[in-house]
Specification:
homodimer, 345 residues, alpha/beta, Rossmann fold, Dihydrodipicolinate Reductase, domain 2, six-stranded mixed beta sheet, 14 helices, 22% strand
Amino acid sequence: MEVKLAFVGFGNVARAFARMLESRRALLDSRYSIQIRVKGIATARHGSIITPTEIDLLEVVDLVERGQSLVSTNGASECADSLGLIERCDADVVFETSPLNPTDGEPAVSYIRRALERGISVVTANKGPIAFAYRELAGLAKQRAVHFRFEGTVMDGAPVFNLAELCLPGVKVTGFSGVLNSTTNLVLTRMEEGASFDQALEEARALGVTEADSAHDIDGWDAAVKTVALANVLMNADARPNDVSRRGIRGITVQEVKAAGQSSRATRLVSRAELIGSELKLSVAPEQVASASPMGAARGTSNVLVLNTDLMGDIAIFETDPGVQQTAYALLSDLLTICASVRNS
Amino acid sequence: MEVKLAFVGFGNVARAFARMLESRRALLDSRYSIQIRVKGIATARHGSIITPTEIDLLEVVDLVERGQSLVSTNGASECADSLGLIERCDADVVFETSPLNPTDGEPAVSYIRRALERGISVVTANKGPIAFAYRELAGLAKQRAVHFRFEGTVMDGAPVFNLAELCLPGVKVTGFSGVLNSTTNLVLTRMEEGASFDQALEEARALGVTEADSAHDIDGWDAAVKTVALANVLMNADARPNDVSRRGIRGITVQEVKAAGQSSRATRLVSRAELIGSELKLSVAPEQVASASPMGAARGTSNVLVLNTDLMGDIAIFETDPGVQQTAYALLSDLLTICASVRNS
């Protein structure tokens, strides 16, 4: 089974995924009978390329990391931009990893819409489109009989959407709570250990886990966008980030956080979805949870999601100290899920 | 899609599953286009029945719970025993829920083998066959192109086997650790709160979470069997319960457990699989873990499994206070997974 790929966005995550793909070519072939072939790559700062043959992924990873343009890549021709690539490329799956726009999810929403309209499956690690246009995009994918997957948008490659879809058949998710933003969680954990807010935030920046604008983390926007993405997919909501009652961690003091820690409690920025009657209430706010609980156990950059369900009570999925490798895996996981589904259909 | 079912064993779990099936008939039909039809039921103490038409599940649940024989059930005829039912029944899926035999997994292994040989898919909640004959039974199922599923054998309906199979494609499980036995965990949690070993065990008995012989819990046999089941399926091992280095919680004192609790640690009966070079080391033993960790957060009857993987680092799945409903859901989950697979093939 030959699978033709195109990349819209080629930042850290996409490049880590490219390396993972290259290092697993033999496994993909032997275990899954998948041969991948890269047909185009669009970047914001290194040009965009397309080819009728095949692009050498490691060559373009190397060019980008040396700060060079892709347009000299062997056998490829230049292409205007991301939309130009989507319009013209001969791909089965587009990997969309452009940066988050927390205001309206654009231009990623338009990229994904156009790819799906052209009958190309889409894998995205960008939570904006799930928070702003999930219902439309999922409907479009269904109508065109292609795939739209986005496991990496919440908790990196730890299965949250796939867990509910593939492992909990017949189960209704009635609510959830979780620690979904690594930056704020690292800051709160370090403050519990005595660091100042600014020291802790600097440490998160050095680890590379913060959003481009760290205010998006600190003020709870990243968590709010993820909360909406989860509610839209797992609870069939049609919410937007502005529907979330949102309070970040900006005002929190070291004294508060340490005092909680000394009484077996831990301060966490908690995302919640609760059905109150028929109304869905979404919130992001600091809470003091028991240290010896799934949310309390999420320390540092770790994340956790607790699903409340009808048939299975509460179950939680927990991700330990995620990095770019885990987000890259989300893309591989989505690719393999699509291939398995194509093979079975 | 009509699906014909037979039950081998009709204890608490099977009856809870029967009630769940009946209460979801409309959902099964509308969402999954599945119409179920029960063709036979074998019990240890209430007789065994088979029918060319259909058995009323709620009628037999009621008969068993009133201590009566099934042989008078409307439209059904008597059948010798479990093997007799398996030999003669016209079923697509057999639900095997006979009690655990921790010595060799029999007679469940023979029941499952015979059903698979006849081309009948099998769902089991019995961990014995996975610990003693997984490789043979999975091979047989593959050869006969039928399904063999067993999500309920470890952590009830919380996805562990399905998580690895369906949500972590391309990932290699390199080891695991977990709290898998509810009885010992409830005992340890209550001892931390000051109860005696005997009081705590009595509480577990009253909750109905203990094995028929609670020594199987206390001496770590149940945890060892689950450890082997996980290793055989997730790590392609071919181990047996006697291969597990096993120490239970019998000698543990309230003083030890309380002292750990006072220094932010928690005593847990931990199942472990570790690859040391190419050798797989399996163990069950009490450990003191951090209270604010996934294993520490598993209090009372809760369970947790931490998977160590190559591409995704450590991820954990956590089940809160499971009961018979959660094990019953495992059977429903396996049934729906089989139906989805049949539909796609």
